[in-house]
Fold this protein.
Amino acid sequence: MSRKFHVYGNWKLHNNAAASRALAQAVVEATSAFRDAVVTGMAPVFLSLAAVREAVPAHPHLKVVAQNGYPAPKGAFTGEVSFALLKDAGCDAVLIGHSERRQIFGETDAFLAEKVPAALAAGLEVVFCVGETLDEREAGRTWEVVGRQIDAVLPKVDAASRARLIVAYEPVWAIGTGRTATPAQAQEVHRLIRDRVAQLWDAAGAAELIIQYGGSVKAENAAELFACPDIDGGLVGGAALDAAGFAKIVAAAAAIRR
Ligand code: PEP
């Protein structure tokens, strides 16, 4: 199995350009020992992307990541930023379908099924986020929801772009709450996602797909999550705002031998 660990930080609506640059520099420095082993990403706000791009050396294992983008290349879409412009600004990747986009901004499966192929067509790597709410989990509907989110988007990804798609399983009840899925809970859903992708794509595509876990990942729980066979790293929110703590999460991934 050739899947590398991918650990990306989602900085959400934090940090101005100067603070983002400083954090990016600190992350690059603190994670340099793990650069061969772990693909590391940083997702600042749009306005800090240029500063972070300047602070992050060009390297296949260092990714500058946008938190969102718009599928149309141009036009009357006030306030939006196209994927082509993100690519032009030096972005390597973009988050799509984060639960905050789905819940606060009303992004639907149908809209995300437009966004993901558009971002891939613009040459970006995509981190496509899926996950169930607490009510859905407690009602025993986790796979119904996550399976529906996967089915809406993965068939729209053409074979040539598959290697640039990452799926992030992020149970909504674990995001920013301090509550983490147990390794067994996370592994169960990751396995279901991989099995489903084998049906939608093929066995080789599913075996190569990077599936990150997100939801209160921190230095204290990263190692046990990353030890699961279908967890290929993390999408980290709060704990990514501190370079030393984030580097410990990257180190936990680097320490695992598959
Ligand atoms: C996230 O925003 O994707 C996330 C997982 O946040 P946190 O790590 O803070 O739960």
User: Anything to note?
Assistant: The mean pLDDT is 97.
